[in-house]
From TrEMBL:
Domain of life, source organism: Eukaryota
GO annotation, biological process: actin filament organization
Protein name: Unc-54
Keyword Coiled coil: yes
Gene3D superfamilies in alphabetical order: Kinesin motor domain (3.40.850.10)
Annotated ranges, domain Myosin motor: 1-267
InterPro entries per UniProt: Kinesin_motor_dom_sf, Myosin_head_motor_dom-like, P-loop_NTPase
The family this protein is said to belong to: Belongs to the TRAFAC class myosin-kinesin ATPase superfamily. Myosin family.
Amino acid sequence: SNLSFLNDASVLHNLRSRYKAMLIYTYSGLFCVVINPYKRLPIYTDSVARMFMGKRKTEMPPHLFSVSDEAYRNMLIDHENQSMLITGESGAGKTENTKKVIAYFAAVGAKQSEAEGIAQEGGKQVTLEDQIVQTNPILEAFGNAKTVRNNNSSRFGKFIRIHFSKLGRVASCDIEHYLLEKSRVIRQAPGERCYHIFYQIYSNYKPELKKILLLDKPIKDYWFVAQAELTVDGIDDVEEMKASDEAFTILGFSEEEKMDCYRLMSA
């Protein structure tokens, strides 16, 4: 840290001052402290990501992209695995920041492919980078839910490995999950909700889907998903269902495989 006096009061004052200026990222030694702004900020666009590519941390303001790029460059230069650990209490922004890290690595990998002249034949095709990014809507649909503290709380832990080639291109990705809160499927506390996927399926994104799945009653009549909240402020289940359905397609699921997943959920 560059603080003259490193104590609780000075750290808190520094973080508060930066937060008031909407500077939500602050470096503290090897760590990057993030304060959740609880609103969308225009600091994660493709143009912003390109600004951080290949730059040293000291050349750019504190940002998650800078931490990500440093890990990427260290991997290529030192030929060693790199780790990024995102921690915090519920609602701190772990899920959102994880998504930004994945999106950044996908963007870096795509740029590396372009630099090597790897062209897509036959127009726009689904790339590995696209598929890695599209794992997020699926994981959130099946593993996130509304709690009293967070409208999109991850009810499981995950360990994500992104593998790169020697030239820095994304080669593969695997995700391990831990400690899924299975009890939420049959029991929700007051002010909370079951997993998003159940309400997405019941939305009107595909009106014929409910008929196929024999969901002919109002959702409040299905006890397992109607013990508390049925809707969430700021979450449009129709749009979220559209994102989940499209993500399945990008990940290579056939229509029959998607329907099998929906049938399991409706059952």
